[in-house]
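Please, structure for the following, as tokens.
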Amino acid sequence: MIEFIIAGIITGFFSGFFGIGGGTILVPILLYLGLDIKTAVGVSVTQMMISSMFGSLLNYKKGLLRFNEGVFLGVGGAVGASLSGFIVSHLSSKFLGFMFLFILAFAIMKFFYAPYESKENNEINNKFLLFLVGVFVGSIAISVGVGGAVMITPILVGMLRYDLKKAVSLSLFFVVFSSTSGFISLSSYGLVDYKLGFLIAIFSMIGVFFGIKTYHNIQANNHKKQLLWWYVLIFVLTAVKII
């Protein structure tokens, strides 16, 4: 039992620090601990739902999350995810995979050259544009079986010139919508181990607290470097999986 608690804390920390769901970290750990893939995914989605809600609340209290922007982004992601079935049925897996890699690589390059701090009046406050970003990311990411959060921050910072810390907060809030939708769907098919899922989720909040506290206090340029390494790792792992 202690190993699951530790896994929750570790996953929660990276979830809060990078503004991600944490599935790319937790699922491999759970598989190593002996769970089958379906159970691992159900537990992971439960953890993501709870930790992203808790983390978003902390970011909101710090003034780094504006719910009106996050809702448009999240709803757009939900709409985009609903199109994934149509997209997958009409395009080949290879094409989708390489399209995802191309978009992610472009976003990472734009993110690399973008300033890590942006003045408030430089941010784009067009809610419909955020909705479109959500639709785009949700449809592409879900179609290739990865979380959309890894694309949100590079796009917001690199292309829309959002402040880095606010973009990370929006990215984590985006996970609230995708993970809640996934939790409801998996629950309806009896694929969620509620006892283990909520155990890990509760302890992941400890990790989320310290992850968010760390990223709030770290210098923006150092945070950007660590985010870049994280995105490159995801890019490489995804490329290996696709190829």
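Residues 76 and 134 are 4 Å apart (CA to CA). The chain has one domain: 2-242.
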